[in-house]
Amino acid sequence: VQLVESGGGLVQAGGSMRLSCVASGFTFDDYADYAMGWYRQAPGKTRELVAKLTNSGGTTYADSVKGRFTISRDNAKTTLYLQMNSLKPEDTAVYYCSTVPAVLWGQGTQVTVSS
Predict the structure, then answer these.
(1) CA–CA separation, 96 vs 115, rounded Å?
(2) CB-facing half-sphere around the CA of 93: CA atoms within 13 A
(3) Hey, what's the torsion of the CAs at 61, 43, 108, 112, to 10 degrees?
(4) Distance between CA 42 and CA 28 in Å, rounded?
(5) Widest CA span of the chain, in angstroms?
(6) Quick one: which of 73, 113, 84 has its CA closest to 17?
(7) Is the predicted pLDDT of residue 9 greater than 90, yes or no?
(8) Residue 81: beta bridge partners?
(9) Cα 34 from chain centre
(10) First-to-last CA distance in the chain?
(11) What stretches of the chain show up as alpha helix (H) in DSSP?
C-alpha cells in the first residue's frame, strides 16, 4: 500500500505543471471516510494542505492557490491529479498527496519555480 507522486520539476514563473499521484495496492474507496488532498512543504516551513477533494467531488483550496490550482481524480479512483497554472516562485516546495487527514505519505515530488 503506497502513494507515488510524480510530475514535478523546474518551471519558470507563470508556467504550468501537472502532478499525479498513483495509489498502489488500494483505491481511494478504501479510504471512503477520508477526502483526498495535495499537501506541500517548502524549506523551513511546515507541511500544508493546498487542495482537497471529497468523495462527493467537492473541492477546497488554500487561499494561496485558489484560482490557479485544480485537484481532480480518475474514474477508477486510483490516481489523483493537481493541475497548477500561473506558478509563482513561492509555490516551490515538495508536493505530497494523501488522505485528509493524512494517514499515509508518499515520497513527494519536488516543484521548483524560477523567477
Answers:
(1) 23
(2) 21
(3) 80
(4) 26
(5) 41
(6) 84
(7) yes
(8) 20, 72
(9) 15
(10) 37
(11) none
Which cell is 50 given?
Answer: 493546498
pLDDT of residue 1: 85
Give which of 68, 15, 5 is closest to 36, Cα–Cα. 5
**pLDDT tens digits, 62-99:** 999 999 999 999 988 899 999 999 999 999 999 999 99
Q: How many whole angstroms separate alpha carbon 26 and alpha carbon 108?
A: 18
Q: Is the dihedral of CA 99, 103, 104, 105 positive or negative?
A: positive
Give the separation between CA 109 and CA 75, rounded to whole angstroms.
Answer: 23
37: its cell numbers:
488532498
Q: Show the CA angle centred on residue 107, arms to residues 103 and 109, nearest 5°.
A: 120
What does DSSP say about strands 69-73 and 79-84: parallel, antiparallel, or unpaired?
antiparallel
Query: 17-43: per-residue pLDDT in tens?
Result: 999 999 999 888 888 889 999 999 999
DSSP state of 71: E
Question: Which residue is associated with the grid cell 513527494?
Answer: 108
